[in-house]
Amino acid sequence: MGKRKRLGTIIPETTTTCSSSSSDNSNSSNNKNSNNNSECGTTSSNSGASHTSKNNNITLNKDNIHTNKPTCSICIQPFIRRTFLQPCCHSFCFTCIRQWINIVPNCPLCKEAIDSLVYNMDETNNTFQEYVLHDHDHHHPSPDPPPTTLKDRILPLRRQMYHHTPSFRQVIYPPVAHRFARVHYILPEHIPKVSTFLAREIPAIMSKTSDSYTEQHIKAILLTPYETNKQRIKSSTSTSSSTNANKSKAFSFSPSPSRPSTPTQKSDTQSQGMMSMYDPTIIQELGEWLTIGAKDLNAETVARRFLDEIMAFIKSGMDYWTFVDTVKYEE
Question: PROSITE patterns, per this entry (predicted)?
């Protein structure tokens, strides 16, 4: 999508041969000259001169060690996340060359056009990451290696789904399991699945790990329709029983035949006045909690998407990872 990653054989590191022999010869000749000069001069020596000579040798050794350590030609510092250019194979720090290619897409050393960057090389697994320049107008290759586990791959997709909801024109959820076909709102028996869902989805929405305080409040909001409808059904049943008793008492002398209601009629009657999972109160409270600290998220849009997801998850009967791997989002 943004960058191309592939597995392949590690490109062998190219080492630059330095003229160490000539410098060593030069150093040895200088040392000989200095020794000759000392012999030609005063024959007396003291411990102070010997101490100074040792210090000079130590300093020279430290300088040589620092000089021989591979460095980036851009920042003149030891490599940080060494990155090789294709096809010239010159190497630089990842951050340095990433900034450079946005100025000019040519190697800083040999000026050859850069085809791609090769980095995140793993010699143990014999893998690397590659970013191809001609696929992009502006270059922002990710420094991170490609995700390898389902969890690593799923989290960015889940975050995108909540943060860019309007970009998905269609969502295809898994089929509803037969035993959950009549589930219209979350029940206490669903809370274990709700807990699993929250632990995975809160980091995707809020970019932070789930905590018991947040989970507790969201669970209470999700159970509001159940609690409200439970009270309404109880109140409705009580009122209905009282009314039927009065009618029976008032018209006992002349009972009129009545047609029994069908299950559908009874269900429709019970559903009248019931609170839905998409009740405006639920949407508002849920949206406020899910978008705490977020400036660019629409609370209502996020809340509706969250309810779509959690209801589809519960009604699918699947475990979380199977569900998120099965659902499809079409842009």
Answer: ZF_RING_1, ZF_RING_2
